[in-house]
Amino acid sequence: MSKNRRSRWYFGGLASCGAACCTHPLDLLKVHLQTQQEVKMRMTGMAIYVVRNNGFLALYNGLSASLFRQLTYSLTRFAIYETVRDRLTGGNTQAIPFYKKVLLGAFGAGGGWFVKSVTSLFLPFFGRMQNDMKLPAPVRRNYKHAVDGLYRVLQEEGIKKLFSGATMASTRGALVTVGQLACYDQAKQLVLNTGFLSDNICTHFLSSFIAGGCATFLCQPLDVLKTRLMNSKGEYQGLWHCIIETSRLGPLGFYKGLVPAGIRLVPHTVLTFIFLEQLRNRFGFLVQT
Length: 289
Description:
Low-confidence stretches: 118-122
CATH architecture: Alpha/alpha barrel
Order of helices and strands: EHHHHHHHHHHE
Strand content: under 5%
CATH topology: Mitochondrial carrier fold
CATH class: Mainly Alpha
Helix content: 55-70%
Structural class: mainly alpha
Radius of gyration: 19 Å
Number of domains: 1
Shape: globular
Strand order of the largest sheet: 1-2
């Protein structure tokens, strides 16, 4: 009998937090690019603009909200997915077909969304915190941190505003989870089956890179709509109105900011799974197989 290490239920949340700390500036720039009414700046130009006008630390606006999201939503979806998967397969991911991994990923995303709905309904102003610096000084909201933003939204705009863009956010979250978790397991299985690589950091990098690309492709249209809804000031009457207005920009309007989204999501996915695998290998609990 051999001994293998399995992840503890909270490793996914810790790994996601580590990745978020590294990639948050890319996420902030992606939000800025998506909310441009006209394409005036690219990635590098936007980064220079933000740093020049607001300082280097402005690239980390909204970091507290991002970390809170990772410690609630991401932790829950990873915990559900990996716990149920290991119970079904005994730790052997090759024993479960890909379609079941997809269903399990969607189920994990649903559990994560429930937790997020209860504990982090302030997600609409996650984008606000990142986008606030673009507004004229007199109309900036100037949230101090995530908790201050939650309190002020409740006080100034009511609880209904917290659900702005909730439909798109939950659907997008399900697609990201399927793209990341299910595709990572499947890609890792395919890479290992080639026999050229063992279960090492090279395999983790390649598999997570593929998963990040899949997640970006699946969720980008919803990501654009979600960002527009969350940062709207009443110009959209609802989801369908937002879809119609975005479609006026042409089919590529739904893939606005695709490259910045990939530049952010792919490294985030890669770092998350590299951190997760390292946590599992060093601190996971031992099981006999």
